[in-house]
Design a protein that fits this description.
Length: about 90
């Protein structure tokens, strides 16, 4: 595991919160864990989205996930779940 990335335990808590993929055509969907790790990397470092390391995939895709998850409340639920776990 690299710095700024979810542990296996954190991933198990967060995975059920993420929206289910329903698209049946087009490109294969991005790995949600990689997208979330990219979001956390960006927010933790404060770097511009364009400076996101290649291991997270295209910065535009990671940013789109961030934008969509913020708009539909998924990101808030993720943070709340991880915060509750840290307080226990």
């Amino acid at each position: 595991m690299k710095r700024h990335e979810l542990t296996e335990e954190q991933w198990q808590l967060v995975q059920p919160i993420l929206p289910k993929r329903t698209a049946t055509t087009g490109r294969p969907p991005s790995d949600s864990r990689v997208m979330l790790n990219g979001i956390f990397w960006n927010l933790r470092t404060g770097a511009p989205w364009r400076d996101l390391p290649e291991r997270f995939g295209p910065w535009q895709t990671v940013y789109d996930h961030f934008r969509n998850w913020r708009a539909d409340g998924t990101y808030d639920r993720i943070l709340q779940t991880l915060q509750i776990r840290l307080c226990q």
